[in-house]
Task: inverse folding
């Protein structure tokens, strides 16, 4: 039965120039999940790299679109169509300016908050009813343009804590797969342990 599979998508920009950017938080979390699955990414015809495996006792497809953030919708729609995954079983991991660094927020549906990756996915799927793991990166300091800020690497202090936050975000994805949104929110919306 195809409806038992989950699709977890990490958002980012491809290539080494963007690898450490705040905007690539989704890719960082997906890479850790791929390690947990014990799989290697393979190119998929839907313009994404995918890993198939099991997480939290669930069949899962992990996907990283091979395009720029603002074009993520096409690959996400293609991969979800190929694996017959409904929007309700899609989890998108992305950076979030409106959430402080190190804080996670989980939700289903809602607006895109100006996030071009989410905008593209919602448009391509024709639905907002997918789950989001919002990886807080905080607002830019002073008058820095948010568009520049998200394309900068994490700062040195942030980098020290980054592995912990990426690990926690990966745990949040597993909690979503294993239980309910409410249970995962109760675990991950509190203050940091």
Result:
């Amino acid at each position: 039965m195809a409806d038992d599979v989950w699709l977890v998508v990490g958002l980012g920009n491809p290539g080494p120039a963007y690898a450490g950017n705040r905007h690539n938080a989704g890719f960082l979390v997906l890479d850790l999940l791929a390690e947990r699955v014990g799989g290697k990414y393979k190119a998929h015809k839907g313009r994404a790299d995918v890993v198939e495996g099991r997480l939290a006792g669930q069949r899962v497809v992990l996907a990283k679109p091979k395009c720029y953030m603002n074009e993520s919708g096409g690959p996400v729609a293609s991969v979800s169509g190929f694996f017959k995954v409904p929007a309700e079983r899609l989890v998108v991991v992305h950076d979030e300016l409106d959430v402080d660094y190190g804080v996670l927020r989980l939700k289903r549906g809602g607006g895109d908050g100006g996030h071009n990756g989410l905008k593209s996915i919602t448009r391509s799927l024709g639905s907002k009813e997918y789950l989001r793991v919002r990886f807080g990166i905080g607002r830019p300091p002073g008058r820095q343009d948010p568009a520049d800020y998200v394309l900068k690497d994490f700062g040195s202090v942030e980098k020290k804590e980054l592995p912990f936050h990426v690990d926690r975000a990966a745990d949040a994805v597993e909690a979503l797969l294993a239980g309910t949104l409410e249970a995962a929110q109760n675990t991950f919306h509190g203050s940091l342990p």
The first strand starts at residue 5 and ends at 10.
